[in-house]
Amino acid sequence: MKKMAILLILMGLGFGYAPAQKTTQTENIFLITVDGLRWQEMFKGADSLFVDDTGMSESLGSLLKEFWDTDPLNRREMLMPFTWSTLEEKGQLHGNRTYGNKVDLRNNMLFSYPGYNEILTGSADDERITSNAKNNNPNTTLLEHLQHMPEYKGKVMAFGSWDVFPYIINEDRSEVPVNAGFDMAEGPNLTEAERMINRMQQEIRGPWAGVRLDPFTHHFAMEAIKKEAPKVVFIAYGEPDDWAHDNQYDEYLHSIKQFDAYLKDLWDYIQSTPQYKNKTTMIITTDHGRGVDKTTWTGHGSGIPRSREVWIAAIGPDSQPFGEVKKEAVLYPAMIARTVFQLLALPYPDGDADAVISDLLP
User: Where does the UniProt annotation place the signal sequence (predicted)?
Assistant: First the structure.
């Protein structure tokens, strides 16, 4: 017994003790969200219910040719070509409820701030996160946890089209730099591209007061990634939800197709850059679902059926290339936070986050 006690003490001091080896290849995380993109379009392409009366009739242009086919497998490829080629071939897509593969929100609010809080903190908070108001998040996001770790300090960045993200991430407390809403690139060493994006954002105003057009968010993010080489990046695109609220199904589809192109842009850069290539996991999801008929598809929330239904996609060196997952299962976006930490071989800092998505782990 005495020998065993001495051995345990020596192990605790580091003598004769080999620390556990990192079993994941992921060193960087790109967490991507797109606001209000339904699983129906994700997995089936353009919705036949809206083809004739929401901007897609032949008399209004070439939208039928661009987005419509009687086969939903063809439609989804037309809408999201990167997703249904590279992402399906080398990654995973969860949430096609046709096969009983479900991704559901935990929160009961079923709108944006509660959805993003759930994704970023790993748990729902229906008691305190009950509106989209610009209130600083009392909960700690995975971004903040990482920012306060020495190995990630100054290597965490966030970008969003919606001007509420500085509050969701609690920028002041977390010290995570957030470029969102109509923020511009700042600092003494702006690139020529950043100066141009700043100028264009001042000159081109979108139709919404609190949400900028996604091209600004994307290109601010790309320039910062190239310049700063962060280890953890959160990018939140917003256009699909706002076009849907405006009952503009054609613009909703265009914004989804553009979002898919942005995913390709990000993944191509990741795979062409030594710091990121084969060392980066990209996780993609949405903050809420929305209605499914002509009277409810523009909205979402606790009073609109199917608003809980979402989806998750991922691609990276530790995630098996399952493609479209067709097995019966239920996942939750709340699982993303703890999964990110396991991919980085880190213990999650508190016990509140949901379980992990085991399919994304080796």
Answer: 1-20
Query: CA 320: distance to chain centroid?
Result: 19
pLDDT digits (tens, 9 = 90+) for 85-112: 999 999 999 999 999 999 999 999 999 9
Helix (H, G, I), strand (E, B) or coil at 308: coil
Long-range contacts made by residues 56-59, C-beta under 8 angstroms, separation at least 24? 56/249, 56/250, 56/253
Joined together, the tokens standing for residue 360 give 């994304």
183-211 pLDDT tens trace? 999 999 999 999 999 999 999 989 999 99
Return the percent helix, strand and coil in the chain, to nearest 5. 40, 15, 50
Q: What angle do CA 253, 254, 256 make, to 5 degrees?
A: 65
User: Which one-letter amino acid corresponds to residue 117?
Assistant: N
The residue-averaged pLDDT of 304-321 equals 98
Beginning with the edge strand found earlier in the chain, give each strand of the sheet holding 323-324 in spatial order: 178-180, 156-160, 232-237, 28-34, 280-285, 312-315, 92-94, 323-324
Residue 179 φ then ψ, to 5°:
-105, 105
The Cα–Cα gap between 79 and 260 comes to 8
Cβ atoms of 272 and 311 within 8 Å: the answer is no
Sequence length of the chain is 362
Under 8 Å between Cβ of 101 and 95: yes
**What distance in Å separates the CA atoms of residue 323 and residue 307, rounded to the nearest whole number?**
24
Rounded to 5 degrees, what angle do the CA atoms 201, 252, 211 make? 35
Q: Which fold has domain 25-360?
A: Alkaline Phosphatase, subunit A (3.40.720)
